[in-house]
Amino acid sequence: MGTRKEIAERAGVSVSVVSRALNNSGYVSAEKREKILKIARELDYHPNPVAMSLMSRRTRQILFMCKDLRNAFNIELYEGMIEAAHRQNYMIVLSGDMDLSRLPSLLVDGVIFPNEAVSLSYLEGVGKRYFLPAVTAAYGAQTSFPRAIPRVTCDMWKASSQMADYLHSLGHRKIACICPYGMDNGDPRVRVWVDLAAQSLKKDRDRYYIGVSRQCLPDDRRVLQFQEEQENVGLLSFPPEHYFEKGCLAADIFVERKLDATAVFCFNDEMAMGFCKRIRQLGLRVPGDISVAGTDGTYSQRYFDAELTTMNLNAVLQGRRCVEVLLNVIEGRKFKYVTNVPVALKKGETVRAVGRAGSGNARPKNGRGV
Amino acid sequence: MGTRKEIAERAGVSVSVVSRALNNSGYVSAEKREKILKIARELDYHPNPVAMSLMSRRTRQILFMCKDLRNAFNIELYEGMIEAAHRQNYMIVLSGDMDLSRLPSLLVDGVIFPNEAVSLSYLEGVGKRYFLPAVTAAYGAQTSFPRAIPRVTCDMWKASSQMADYLHSLGHRKIACICPYGMDNGDPRVRVWVDLAAQSLKKDRDRYYIGVSRQCLPDDRRVLQFQEEQENVGLLSFPPEHYFEKGCLAADIFVERKLDATAVFCFNDEMAMGFCKRIRQLGLRVPGDISVAGTDGTYSQRYFDAELTTMNLNAVLQGRRCVEVLLNVIEGRKFKYVTNVPVALKKGETVRAVGRAGSGNARPKNGRGV
DNA sequence: TTGAAAGCGCTAACAA
DNA sequence: TTGTTAGCGCTTTCAA
User: Fold this and answer.
1) What pLDDT sits at residue B143?
2) Which residue has its C-alpha nearest to nucleotide D13's C1'?
């Protein structure tokens, strides 16, 4: 490829002069500069990026620790990261797997974790014996969180509460909850739902919580189809989440349990759409028979035939902020330990009013609903 | 972080001994080895990845030159790449932008291009004055292609022909074509359709070709919503493709032109699904009023309420093969200049029989269709 | 204005 | 079995 040394030889000068000429730093006679630049051009010279990194102690690469790219939320996070990184001349790289132990051997200046759980897992593992600037996307699941990793948190509490109020205002009382975890996960979405359920569902509550996980459904062999629920998955590996498919399964369970809920509160849009697809196949109309509320507000909605009622979590913005904070850490600038990302309720067509309110069997605008 | 030099000082030996101990290479007394390993552990020593790369002249990173991650096809390609790369201890990084000129400054050992067009653009630009092992995913659009870049080609000819035969066998004669480019693009999908149309549509052909691009629709201001059709997009930048949205627009145009086609042949699944969504909103049933055939066979189908009739192009496999060939190039092993990826027709619910065949108004299994 | 020298963290050939 | 030396491609200090 050609090195500065080669250029120096051809130009009959020393490498330092070549360096100065190429970098436009320090003194170098106009005549030699021209000659050097000309030779560099002839040789198609490009500085060796690895040597540059060794000198500058910067790779200008940031790792986004993310595996499940079939989830639109992760893609949007990533898009925001790219945008912010690009502005400061950094690149985002993806891990492809979730092997945290390989982190120290990667050519990166910092890492962004996708959620609190992964961050904690890192801190308890390699993070203990290895320092790398890190930032995590967060969702308010943890009450206490180590200060080692700054958080960029989306205001899930607010979003969930708004959605709860909205559903309540439309007359919904019996609301089911669909989630990939157990009820004790600490997730704000679940806690808000638990509060709701305490009033309306009383001791019946647990039947209305459809936790699509092995822990919640120990006897249901169907959850075993999801890799992460199988025995042989190591603790250090975070497999793809299969949210959509879990949403489908949740619909089956919803029908099997003969729930009389008028609405379903979903962990995210993928699950919401999976639920809708399957529940329609099972003969129920959305929102005619059952209202569905999602969480996310990502582009994957475009595939859906109705406007999804959901919460816009601003994934792109969250991704952007993650990078901004991380670059502050890396470059030694001051930064805020917690950053909040604004959220907003998005009213769509998959939730309708019920009960006294009496909007009755209103159908969505385009008349769909199986 | 600690270096081999520090370990050497603490252990009272030279760096070479430390290196040999840590690498398990060459001679080193058992006693010193133990001591060195112990100190390394105490110091939480990790080899500096950049220095390692400088020595080995390998970054063990491969760039996938891809921007539009909202397209499931790219995601599947990427997943295949990750899998293959992982096996040989490489990582795939994404560019995030399509700035080919920045390639020489990236920490990568090779690059994978997403299609022939980008490859050619590279060869005519920086590729002329810079060498980096490269491979391209290909789709048979080019008759001649420079040997500088090996291709991993999916057999689009075969796939398109199969689909054409299938539609024909079901009685479809008037078939429209939906494509993001002009008819002269050389794409096998289009060429197969042109052959079909020559017989059945005769001189009416052009009306049935819905090319959603500025070139094809110079007077339609709606195409301007897509960034890539605007004036100010530089040649070196490949913006996101907006296939889904273009599929929606194609449906509008289909209706405006009052086409009497019984089937639509779509450039890819994104366009097919966009077309379906919009055409239903416009009051037509799929496949009741119009049959829709896609191309891709990616996971994004899961969002769709019916089984899409499409061609499985095996994106995951294609991605895997790209990496395998590229690693052969990088590691100096022998490799094949052209690799073919198998394809298969996938019969779904969005195409039905028409005409004499008389399966009449058969509706899809789940009774959907607006 | 220039170039020799030391160094970034690591490897490897060679002499001791 | 060990340490010295030279070098990967580049930067930067400092003496000339």
Assistant:
1) 76
2) A16
Q: Considering only alpha carbons, which residue of chain B is nearest residue A276?
A: B305
What confidence score (pLDDT) does residue A356 get? 58
A44–B129 C-beta distance less than 8 A? yes
Measure, in angstroms, how far nucleotide D12 C1' is from residue A16 CA.
9
The mean pLDDT value of chain A amounts to: 91
List, in sequence order, every residue forming a beta bridge with B209; answer none if it has no partner: B177
Tokens, residue B35: 């001591």
Q: Does the distance separating the beta carbons of A95 and B94 come in below 8 Å?
A: no
List bases in chain C with any atom under 7 Å of a protein Cβ: 1-5, 7-14
Report how far residue A36's alpha carbon sits from residue A192's, in angstroms, rounded to the nearest whole number. 67
Looking at chain B from residue 288 to 327, which residues have their Cβ under 8 Å from any Cβ of chain A? 299-300, 302-305
A43 Cβ contacts chain D strand, under 7 Å: no
- Chain A contacts in chain B segment 193-232 (CB below 8 A): none
Check CB contact of B91 with chain A, cutoff 8 Å: yes
What CA–CA distance (Å, rounded) separates A135 from A118? 11
User: Bridge partners of A211?
Assistant: A179
How confident is the model over B314-350, as pLDDT tens digits? 999 999 999 999 999 999 999 999 999 999 999 999 9
Which residue is associated with the tokens 């009033």? Answer: A199
Angle between helices A269-281 and A243-256 (to 10 degrees): 50
Q: Which of residues 351-370 of B touch A (CB under 8 A)?
A: 366-368, 370
Strand C reaches within 7 A of the B25 CB:
yes
3-state class (DSSP) for residue A169: helix
Write out the E strands in chain A: 61-64, 91-94, 110-113, 134-138, 151-154, 175-179, 209-211, 263-266, 291-293, 310-312, 338-341, 344-346
Which secondary structure element, helix H or strand E, spans residue B221, and what is its range? none
The β-bridge relationship of strands A263-266 and B175-179 is unpaired
Residue A151 near residue A136 (C-beta atoms within 8 A):
yes
Distances (CA, A) of A245 to A147, A315, B36, B189, B309: 36, 22, 51, 32, 21
Give pLDDT, residue B67: 81
- Strand, coil or helix: what is B175? strand
Chain B CB contacts of A61 under 8 Å are 93, 107
Interface residue of A61, A64, A94 to substitute, partner B, most B CBs within 10 Å: A94
The Cα B307–Cα B293 span in angstroms is 11
Q: How many helices (H) and strands (E) does chain B have?
A: 12, 12
Q: A18 near A36, Cβ under 8 Å?
A: yes
Shortest distance between the Cα of A65 and any Cα of chain B, in A, equals 12
Longest dimension (CA), chain A: 92
Does B1 score more than 90 pLDDT?
A: no
CA–C1' A33–C1 (A): 12
| Nucleotide at minimal C1' distance from the A51 CA | D9
Q: Which helix (H) or strand (E) holds B340?
A: strand B338-341
Tokens found for residue A91: 């690149």
CA A84 distance to own-chain centroid: 16
Tell me the C-alpha distance between A266 and B195, whole Å. 48
pTM for the model = 0.91
List chain A residues with CB under 8 Å of B86: 96-97
Residue with token string 């491969």: B62
pLDDT at B367 over 70: no
Render pLDDT for B105-122 as a digit per residue (tens, 0 to 9). 999 999 999 999 999 999
Are the CB atoms for B141 and B160 separated by under 8 Å? no
Q: For chain B, first and last CA: distance in Å?
A: 63
